[in-house]
Amino acid sequence: MVGVGSMGRNHARVYSELEEVELVGVCDRDASRAGEIAQRFGCLATTELDQLLSLAPHVLSIAVPTSQHHEVALAAVEAGVPVLLIEKPISDDFDHAAQVIAAARRKGIKIFVGHIERFNPAVRVLKELIGEGRLGEVLSIANLRVGQYNERILDTGIILDLGSHDVDLISFLYGERVEAVSAVASTSVHERGYEDHASILLRFPGERSGICELSWLSPYKVRNIFVTGEDRFALVDLIQQKVTLLGSEPEVVPVPREEPLRLELKAAVECYLNGTEPAVTAEDSIHCLKVCNAAISAYRTGRVVEV
Which end of the chain is more exposed for a tag (fewer CB within 10 A), N or C? Predict the structure, then answer.
């Protein structure tokens, strides 16, 4: 485990709970933080990535700040780690992401990008409902993701940090790539001047739309998906893992409650154990990165940006 901040320590916890996994080490530039996590889960603590890689791990999770993904991933590829799980987004830079993918392909290494919301049981149920035609043809998917600003996020704005969840989710639910993007955004509280509120409009084939409403200015946390179909409307609460269909009669669809991160990391481990392909590919995350960068360009220029 590389990076044991707020997200990485949860990776370490889940890996330590999986029967088929031995957590062998954690690496963090903060020695006391690495030591705390290592003591809790009984593994090596180090501040040196080379020392962690010398253990020859089968799976390596990368949960460092986005701007450092490239450096850590390339070192892991060079060391020949079979499976890399990289927290989303794959990088903050398209060229850096492409370098990581090319290097991994040359060595036959699998890259699994941690778009965790795909593993939310409510999303899985919604995807099935759409595939079964329960909503009719889907015309619009609108996601609302708001909450308070986390001061640890210094190297990126809300579009890349939170918006990447929803760009990927909407593309996943449609099973299509985004064609064009428009956006408005503003900066209010971010310490380094990145955008902390954004409204993004995505155009998909067939004139279908995706809408992402993002804010770090809300006093309460909301993670909702609204799906407009020709026959029915779906409301999804990602926090409560609840799916409701609205039509002539409201219907609450059963959702098996599970921790999305546990499902995600089990899928990454299965890539190594069973030779399966990553559920979220590097190419998926490259598309997401392109769309997020297009949204940033769109709000800065006031233009629609083709993807």
Answer: C
The count of structural domains within the chain is 2
Looking at residue 154, its pLDDT comes to 64
Q: What is the CATH number of the domain that holds 101?
A: 3.40.50.720
Domain span holding position 249: 117-256+281-306
| Calpha distance 238→123 (Å, rounded) | 8
Low-confidence ranges of the chain (pLDDT < 70): 153-154
Same domain, 183 and 195: yes
53, 87, 116 - which closes a domain? 116
pLDDT value of position 147 = 94
Instruction: Report the pLDDT value the prediction gives residue 282, as an integer from 0 to 100.
Output: 85
Contact 43, 23 (CB under 8 A): yes
Q: What is the pTM of this model?
A: 0.93
Query: Is 1 part of any domain?
Result: no
